[in-house]
Design a protein that fits this description.
54 residues; mainly alpha
């Protein structure tokens, strides 16, 4: 009985992780977050003094 309870908890954790990662994939929220970070970093790098022009 103890092994069955442990297995059920493991299955529940894996199912919830799958649900969370599927929701992130379905809503494309990972790339939305990356875009926000990229925009903030772009402002920083645009303001840096550059040695040479490309």
């Amino acid at each position: 009985m103890k092994i069955i309870k442990i297995l059920l908890k493991i299955i529940a954790v894996l199912a919830s992780l799958f649900a969370v990662t599927f929701a992130i994939y379905y809503t494309n929220s990972d790339m939305k977050l990356v875009r926000k970070i990229y925009d903030k970093l772009q402002v920083h790098y645009d303001n840096l003094v550059k040695d040479r022009k490309l």
